[in-house]
Amino acid sequence: MPELALFLFWPALAGYLEAALAYAGETVRPGRPARFAVWGVRLGWLAQTALLAAQAVRADGFPWASWAGSLNLFVWLTVGAYLIWGCRASFRLLGLVVMPLAVVLFLLAWAAGGAGDEPRSSFGDVFLAFHVVLVLAAFAGFTVAAALAGLYLWQERRLKRHAPDVLRLRAPSLASLDRFTGRTIAVSLPALTIGIGIGFGRLGTRGGGFDAIIAVTLVAWVVYAAFLILRYGAGWYGRRSAYLALAGFLLVLVVRVGLPPVAHF
Amino acid sequence: MHVLLVGTSHHRAPVELRERLAFGAEPGADLASRLAGAAGEAVALSTCNRTCLYLAHSDPETARSLAVAALAELSGLAQEELGPALYVMLDEDAARHLFGVAAGLDSMIPGEAQILGQVRVAWEAAAAEGATGVVLNRLFRQALHVGKRVRTETSIGENPASISSAAAELAASVFGDLSGKRVLVIGAGKMGELTVLNLVLRGAERPVVVNRSLEGAERLAERFGGRAAGLDVLDQELERADVVVASTGAEEIVLAADRVERAMRRRRHRPIFFIDIAVPRDLDPRINGIDGCYLYDIDDLEQVVKESVAGRREEAVRAEEIVVEETEKFRAWQASLDVVPAIASLRALAEGIRAGELERARGLLGSLSENERRAVESLTSQIVNKLLHLPTVRMKEAAAASDGLIYAEAVRHLFGLGEEGR
């Protein structure tokens, strides 16, 4: 592994790991650990940003075309999406779901060679930039939405079971979690739609095979579209919409880590 | 100048005695003024759980006698009778006590918020009467700072400490902002009233009160500018409500789960938060099992409050650290007062020499322009300031380490301060 990994990968991983542990600590003793966690996320994300920038500078083309490389980019986008409002005091516990996932996927990306020098892709850079980045950004949004849905179910369970510490270990209100899950998916689905559209355009002009990744991505699209219709059209609130968001995320996970990487173009 | 505290609180005195020692803001300011007239500075603080007199005086024993006499007069008891209920603290201990009071650490429920306002009012009232000076102003300003710091840096005041505020907080855990949320009150009990008050204070809409007797419903509805109705409209109101508070005196369940289930279908499963503070319970416990319904009875709420108060006690340990840190700062400041006169004399001496020498050289400097003369003034001032900077800092440091008086005496001796008349 080149020196890039040594100088940028490890600090990023250390930041994310520290944040994941501190969020876990927050559940035991609320207050101070969350502040350390927020700084872990910020510093880790900055280090990963530097890593991606260095990869981009050193690569002769789009550097995240491989499965591992795109996983690296996906982690960065997910943590970035979380950073938008996840560091707010009332949403801190979201990190309990997002950061351990980020650590595992980031390690996976590194183990598969996605955090070092990436080989040049044989595809057009602009095409890849739009297709890959849009699809990955949508997946990052769905990941955060799943974390919100998970947090909703956890908090709802605590309220239903009358957990005595329900007010000590504070989570966002159910209404906020439900609302933000819907909004995050409403923003992410158009990105996925455009990403898929560009992909199909590419398939049409350059040819290529219809594979399992494309199929599962399309199923995920259908699930999220159904989510939005049911959420905003049929008034699905709370638990039901949270389960649907999690079901969609399972498909995202299948696409990202469950299926063998294939180049469909 | 010493700081002295003489007072009593719920730790030492029964409520009967605390009642006799209690006073309002105005009499408190008068008392402070009277004590300050003789003692130098004074602030009189009276809350539900304590009465404290803070005095700044050069002779602590005299100040103590004055304060004890004032409290004895206030209570109508002989000093000997009152004595065992009083605590007397000096300087650092008095400061630590006040900082703890301002932080809510001395309250029955740690982190109680009202106390900080009461400390401020007592200080401002005394200051308005001219009863405070450098020492107590500094002490109380710092006490208010400690109170704010503790509430910012710890979560001691975040968790609810009463059934009614816990109920409102739990409702907020479901809905977030309670603005515009509709409150339905079943029954017109006193506890229900307190809970509604907490909900309304958080922005909930004026309540609809349904009760067997319309008269009771009207009384409660009127208090919050809400609407009263009979129990016959309960199902319709349930369709619209977001928070339901039940506190009737009924012996049996007033609202069964199947009625709620029907209402939930009609309202497309929009959530409802149910608060049942009646004993025996008014609401069917099976309501909690319905999707979108959250039911808390009095026992559930008590558990939440108990846990919250335990959390406050844990936070109190961190708050105590802040109090200790701030007490040390006050102690250092108070000690530095010992060397202030010596520093002031030294600076006055240096300034006198500087001005005198300039005056003597006026003939030589006569040809200087206005700008050049100003430059010479500035230059000589800077030399004096630089020369005195380190001795000043060192004397203050020594004062903080309890050696202030020795250093001050040495400076007086070395520079002949106070010997002008000799």
Put the structure in a nutshell:
The complex is a heterodimer of chains A (265) and B (422). Helices cover 76% and strands 0% of the residues of chain A.
Round the Cα radius of gyration of chain A to an integer and report it: 19 Å
Strand content of chain B: 5-15%
Uncertain parts of chain A: none
Largest interface: chains, residues each: A-B, 23 and 31 residues
Order of helices and strands of chain B: EHHEEHHEHHHHEHEHEHEHEEHHHHH
Oligomer: heterodimer
Instruction: Characterize the biggest β-sheet of chain B.
Output: 6 strands, parallel
What's the β-strand tally of chain B? 10
Report what the structure shows.
The complex is a heterodimer of chains A (265) and B (422). Chain A is mostly helical. Chain A contains eight helices and no strands. Chain A is flat. The two termini of chain A are 28 Å apart. The model of chain A has no long low-confidence stretch (mean pLDDT 84). Chain B is of the alpha/beta class. The model of chain B has no long low-confidence stretch (mean pLDDT 88). The two termini of chain B are 28 Å apart. In chain B, 59% of the residues lie in helices and 12% in strands. In chain B, α7 packs antiparallel against α13. At the A-B interface, α5 and α6 of A face α8 and α13 of B.
